[in-house]
Amino acid sequence: MTPPTAPQGAAPSEGPQPVPATLPVTLTVNGQERTLELDPRVSLLDTLREHLHLTGTKKGCDHGQCGACTVLLDGQRVLSCLTLAVMHDGQAVTTIEGLGTPDDLHPLQDAFIRHDGYQCGYCTPGQLCSSVGTLDEIARGVPSHVTADLDDVRFSADELRERLSGNLCRCAAYPNIIAAVSEVHASQNGASQNGTAQPGAAQNGVGQ
Amino acid sequence: MKFDQPATTNPIDQERVVTRPHTRIEGPLKVTGQAPYAYEYRLPEAPTYGFVLGAGVARGRITAIDTAAAEAAPGVLLVLTHENMPAQGASDTPVPQQEDASPQLAGPEIRHYHQAVAFVVAETFEQARAAAHLIRVTYDVTPGQFTLADTLEEGKEPDDAADSVVGDFEEAFGAAAVTVDLTYTTPDQSQAPMEPHATIAHWEGEELTVHTAHQVVHWVKRGLAMTLKVPQKNVRVISAYVGGGFGTKLLFFSDAVLSAAAARVLGRPVKTALQRPLIFNNTSHRAATIQRVRLGADHAGNLSAVGHDTWTGNLPGGDSEPACEQTKYLYAGPNRQIRTRQSELDLPPGASMRAPGEAVGMLAIEGAMDELAEKLGVDPVELRLMNDVQFDPEKGPKRPFSSRKLAQALRTGARAFGWDGRPRTPRERQEGEWLIGYGVASAFRTNLVKPSGATVRLEPGGTLTVETQMTDIGTGSYTILGQVAAEMLGLTLEQVQVRLGDSEYPASSGSGGSWGANSASAGVYAACDALRRDLAKQAGYPYADAVFRSGKVWQGAECTELSELAGKEGVSATGSMTYGDLDEQFAQAGFGAHFVEVRVNAHTAEIRVNRALSVVGAGRILNPVTARSQCLGGMTMGIGSALMEELHVDHDLGLFVNHDLGEYHVPVHADIPDMDVIFLDELDDASSPLRAKGLGELGISGVGAAVANAVYNATGVRVRDFPITLDKILAGWDD
Amino acid sequence: MRAFTYERAATPQAAAGATLAEGAKFIAGGTNLLDLMKLDIERPAHLVDINRLELNAVTDTADGGLHVGALVTNTDLASHPRVRADYAVLSRAIVAGASGQIRNKATTGGNLLQRARCPYFYDTNLPCNKREPGSGCAALTGLSRPLAVIGTSDACIAQHPSDMAVALRVLDATVNTLKADGTERTLALDDFYRLPGDTPHLETTLEAGELITGVTLPPPPGGTHVYRKVRDRASYAFALVSVAAILNGRESRFAFGGVAPRPWRDPAAEKAAADAGPVARARAVIDAAFADARPTEQNAFKVPLLRRTLSAVLEEHSTTGGQK
């Protein structure tokens, strides 16, 4: 293989690009209705960070490979970098700012502090939103790669490790995150339950 | 203050706040998304958005760059290239500098793939990104050297890793009863912090403020000033929260330089985050190494010959990857030959990544020790104990280690891990489909200290504020510095507020080389010492008698409230710590031991870590919560380096091909089991008044070798070409 | 990301019509398309958002099979009671891929259409015939370790990255489409996916404006369902190799992932040494199915790895009652 000799970049014949029309988008963000006029290219992530100034949701890779941008969209965890805001007109988004505040922490936020489930803090909002979504998915009986019996989804540390694997942490607070989420799961489900998913036992825990 | 005599009793020894397991004081901000990272500040004026276009070739020259379409694109405000870049300070190397001019778009010359060739600024991020893709660059491509193995003859002794030659190595090695002669290769690796390199730059007249993700504030302040040709006093740097660094944010890159230059041209703020696929080739990485380890011992295992040669490469003017440095200190042996050779390569710039040298050097020396132990038929723990030494093996007993608990770490770890229950021979133990293996390695990381300063202010009301340029890159600085100040002034941690990462505050060591916690704490110690003297004097107590406790200063039974002494204005003091030659009198390093159990699938050779333990002797542990997390992080990165991390070089095109987080694999949750850390009781008097040593890199230094040794124990296959991926195990199994 | 116009389609037919134009593309989950648009690899001028079409149901078919709407998310498909009960290999394959967040967004139709993960495809500066026909294939002499070993050509050695599609292949699923002219088609996966040949930029046989409306699963095949994926880290990585198996004695079926430009299955090879023990049978099946493999030096390990993986699958389930 020899190095390419063709020029880098677009062929000049492509010419100037058309100005995209902005589109109105209404999102319910952390319980509050927000209406914006957006370039359709704006990702949900950049909508939150640059247009709504909710910078708690992080941009780690912008390509769906790190999980730092995880938010809850109509209650389900998704990557806000890999979707466009215009695709979600009328939908509800919960971000880290909607989970809790320093004076009124979500139980998972509190557990992350006590278990040192972070270091630099940059992946942390994504880990937290992903954890909220994960506990809900386990409660709803959504199987994972490590689920032994597809019809009997049970909470375990291994289930958490697998299900949170889309959230990279380069500081590697992984063991502490697992400890924090496990503790919250235990406190929410009580010692008497064996962890089996119960219909309607969803632990969303999202304050909206 | 100057620390030039070993520490004597001081207020830190009370250990009422320091050494206590306090959770992070900035934790509530981090877990709620309120902690602002560089790209997230909101300025009064709306920002503009920068986007860096990286070179499409590894080596050559731009012969034409057509920016017309980009300039005409919607929202575009400015396109900078080498043709219109404002004047910059010069550098004689293409490698970015810590605190000197590191020009960008400085000319048509391309020295590495994804070097910045253009910078687009637009009203929105989407516009800037789209316009950057309209720029057409034509190159005259020059052949480059991208293959370390082809340059071994050309390597030169680098300035930063001098040869260590003692006795007659060749003769001793030739005469040794038992020898190993092994070659290891380690790949290029990426620091890959979760926060991309990012900057917001804005000018007010001649004064520049940059919010940038950086590890050492005064370095980037000086470096940017030199690059932009402005006085240092005109540059303010804010780096209050940094989303991980691991060495790459010791340098400053195109996001900082180009945002600042463009903001000046435009008269508007410019914000830029390097897009993730650019980071791997545009910024720094840990350079690949080829290492040859030769060890000679008598039949009992006493080393007589210790040889370690490293070959590494970089762009001209770049640092070496000094992978055999630890071998100068780790084990005894009268005949020694430890050499690094560095050649020129046309790959992206190599620079610091967590534990430069040790992180990959320990893979080699500690793998070789395992092979030697096997050849000798001795327990690898015993072999290490046998060759432990309490002084610098090169300089002799006149230079003792300030503290060295390698033996205790190995013994403690062996007991706690159940080393006695290990499989004695390869492939001895299988559970279902999984082969089980145990591995051990020593841990070693040089201890470094750097001058560091701080201001402490007793506020009206009796609380304390600490201000220093020190950064917290996840290391726990906010909390640790608060603990040190609280200890010094007899306050609780809740009574102390810590402000970091602003060049308006006194210069600090910053975060790097594991020097941060110890050095910055010593700076806060010095400032607090000055404040204590002032307050004692105000209270009318002789300083020697003054005791600070419970928000008061005491002389015997008599006391004065600090809030009273603070008055309406408060009282502040500034201090800094510098160092004498204790690091020459004493060899200083952190020591420890790593124990790892792996399972390897007998069919597919998939490797998973079952459990891991690090035993750490790193002086006083200032905060066991944050210290443990640092160790876990280091262990995880070390597991990554052993099993998966590799920047794949395209040897024809001259780039790291897998330049995203999808294909550059770092460990995920599922790769990492629950892991243990044991801290040994240790105080290092020669390191600082804190009696602490560096910790953040000890976790990574050696753990990968323990993994590799465990993989051998499980599989019977020695892989010396890192990372140990399953295909390399399969190649060693007869099919 | 180039500027584009955006519309939300009201009906499948309208969506197909709106995507006939040059440069128009459907967007559903967006988890692959937006990734590629940000890198200037995909440059649609018009996006037709199909997310609100009523193609998100899983329904029983008259013959006892299952129809899966194109917009059913990966999570919902893997969790569906009938999929878990009757098509467990599909559940298993889906949850082996990507991450929970991506599976919540990614759709059945989109998963089939995800593009190659070859690093040379992913960088517009580098030669890649799939991205830029005629520019060459840098992977042939560069990083080829993750890439395909069979079904490749001198123009392209990229592998198909989907796990889900491998399970669909072993299940003999078919793809249902709607064309802009209103006609419908049903395609077997081997007819849906093209091999690269001289035209690696053409990955499927879909025509302009042709919309995937769903996937049809034949009646439950019975047997023991297994999906085994081997990768470089424990999760969140593409397969080095994978085996989708429906174990049913001599009638067992196998499809293979991570090794070819499309899910790879060779029904004739499945019969090889069907009465032999796991090791011998795996060897016979892989030797037959991969007789035409043309691996590179870097990825030659995939064939023996596949044999070992299949052997592991057979061994595990020859002794146990099998898993769901």
TrEMBL record, chain A:
<dbReference type="InterPro" id="IPR006058">
    <property type="entry name" value="2Fe2S_fd_BS"/>
</dbReference>
<feature type="domain" description="2Fe-2S ferredoxin-type">
    <location>
        <begin position="23"/>
        <end position="99"/>
    </location>
</feature>
<dbReference type="Pfam" id="PF01799">
    <property type="entry name" value="Fer2_2"/>
</dbReference>
<dbReference type="GO" id="GO:0051537">
    <property type="term" value="F:2 iron, 2 sulfur cluster binding"/>
</dbReference>
<dbReference type="InterPro" id="IPR036884">
    <property type="entry name" value="2Fe-2S-bd_dom_sf"/>
</dbReference>
<protein>
    <recommendedName>
        <fullName>2Fe-2S ferredoxin-type domain-containing protein</fullName>
    </recommendedName>
</protein>
<dbReference type="InterPro" id="IPR002888">
    <property type="entry name" value="2Fe-2S-bd"/>
</dbReference>
<dbReference type="GO" id="GO:0046872">
    <property type="term" value="F:metal ion binding"/>
</dbReference>
<keyword id="KW-0560">Oxidoreductase</keyword>
<feature type="region of interest" description="Disordered">
    <location>
        <begin position="1"/>
        <end position="21"/>
    </location>
</feature>
<dbReference type="InterPro" id="IPR036010">
    <property type="entry name" value="2Fe-2S_ferredoxin-like_sf"/>
</dbReference>
<dbReference type="InterPro" id="IPR012675">
    <property type="entry name" value="Beta-grasp_dom_sf"/>
</dbReference>
<dbReference type="GO" id="GO:0016903">
    <property type="term" value="F:oxidoreductase activity, acting on the aldehyde or oxo group of donors"/>
</dbReference>
<keyword id="KW-0479">Metal-binding</keyword>
<dbReference type="Pfam" id="PF00111">
    <property type="entry name" value="Fer2"/>
</dbReference>
From TrEMBL, chain B:
<dbReference type="GO" id="GO:0005506">
    <property type="term" value="F:iron ion binding"/>
</dbReference>
<dbReference type="Pfam" id="PF01315">
    <property type="entry name" value="Ald_Xan_dh_C"/>
</dbReference>
<dbReference type="Pfam" id="PF20256">
    <property type="entry name" value="MoCoBD_2"/>
</dbReference>
<dbReference type="InterPro" id="IPR000674">
    <property type="entry name" value="Ald_Oxase/Xan_DH_a/b"/>
</dbReference>
<dbReference type="InterPro" id="IPR016208">
    <property type="entry name" value="Ald_Oxase/xanthine_DH-like"/>
</dbReference>
<dbReference type="Pfam" id="PF02738">
    <property type="entry name" value="MoCoBD_1"/>
</dbReference>
<dbReference type="InterPro" id="IPR046867">
    <property type="entry name" value="AldOxase/xan_DH_MoCoBD2"/>
</dbReference>
<protein>
    <submittedName>
        <fullName>Xanthine dehydrogenase</fullName>
    </submittedName>
</protein>
<feature type="domain" description="Aldehyde oxidase/xanthine dehydrogenase a/b hammerhead">
    <location>
        <begin position="32"/>
        <end position="143"/>
    </location>
</feature>
<dbReference type="GO" id="GO:0016491">
    <property type="term" value="F:oxidoreductase activity"/>
</dbReference>
<dbReference type="InterPro" id="IPR037165">
    <property type="entry name" value="AldOxase/xan_DH_Mopterin-bd_sf"/>
</dbReference>
<dbReference type="InterPro" id="IPR036856">
    <property type="entry name" value="Ald_Oxase/Xan_DH_a/b_sf"/>
</dbReference>
<dbReference type="InterPro" id="IPR008274">
    <property type="entry name" value="AldOxase/xan_DH_MoCoBD1"/>
</dbReference>
TrEMBL record, chain C:
<dbReference type="InterPro" id="IPR016166">
    <property type="entry name" value="FAD-bd_PCMH"/>
</dbReference>
<feature type="domain" description="FAD-binding PCMH-type">
    <location>
        <begin position="1"/>
        <end position="222"/>
    </location>
</feature>
<dbReference type="InterPro" id="IPR016167">
    <property type="entry name" value="FAD-bd_PCMH_sub1"/>
</dbReference>
<dbReference type="GO" id="GO:0016491">
    <property type="term" value="F:oxidoreductase activity"/>
</dbReference>
<dbReference type="Pfam" id="PF00941">
    <property type="entry name" value="FAD_binding_5"/>
</dbReference>
<dbReference type="InterPro" id="IPR036683">
    <property type="entry name" value="CO_DH_flav_C_dom_sf"/>
</dbReference>
<dbReference type="InterPro" id="IPR036318">
    <property type="entry name" value="FAD-bd_PCMH-like_sf"/>
</dbReference>
<dbReference type="InterPro" id="IPR016169">
    <property type="entry name" value="FAD-bd_PCMH_sub2"/>
</dbReference>
<dbReference type="InterPro" id="IPR002346">
    <property type="entry name" value="Mopterin_DH_FAD-bd"/>
</dbReference>
<protein>
    <submittedName>
        <fullName>Molybdopterin dehydrogenase</fullName>
    </submittedName>
</protein>
<dbReference type="InterPro" id="IPR005107">
    <property type="entry name" value="CO_DH_flav_C"/>
</dbReference>
<dbReference type="InterPro" id="IPR051312">
    <property type="entry name" value="Diverse_Substr_Oxidored"/>
</dbReference>
<dbReference type="GO" id="GO:0071949">
    <property type="term" value="F:FAD binding"/>
</dbReference>
